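Q: My labmate handed me this sequence with no annotations at all. I'd like to see what the chain might look like in three dimensions before we decide whether it's worth expressing. Could you predict it?
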Amino acid sequence: MKFEKDQLQMVMALFLVAVIAAALLGITDMFTREPIAMAQKEALHRALEQVLPVYANDPQSDEVEIVSDGEEAVHIYPGKDEKGRLTGIAWEVVAPDGYSGRIRILLGLHPDGSIQAIRVTDHRETPGLGDGIVKNVAWLASFVGRSLTDTQWAVKKDGGDFDQFTGATITPRAVVKAVRHGLDFYHAHSQVILEAIRKADASELRPDGGQ
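A: Here is what I predict for the chain of 211 residues:
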């Protein structure tokens, strides 16, 4: 009987610890969720300023979602001038095959499909080697103005137009490939994207908010 009582006390103690831990996690999440969301929004704002042509709107507020072929929704951030005319669009592309894992890239385009700029927003590449995708300003600038039709989308080691880094070919290769896929996506869906932005603009002008 004493053994069963000891077991019951142990189970109750473990249950109490689990309840307390769950409560603490819930409280922590409640107090940190909003600051984390705000920090992420601010980080995206800074990145958008770097990859979009000059704009007068809030691209995050004007975001549209594009879904194609059953894949995850792509969040498109449009930049517009003071008259509401589209100056550029940006969205995230992901290189799944970086040396140390996924590389997230914000790709900014002009409406004609040429690149305004790219910025790597998250990576785990080796410091001093692969992190040139963030720190090598000249390499990042080599994407500016390029499009599908005027560029060999590979690193020079593979017969393309982009430099690789000494001792780190895999990382720039992955970024170049991902950016190329982003351009392919825009080429295939540009009409859908532009129409979604146009409809969103028209909805905002309606007095009922588009309902």
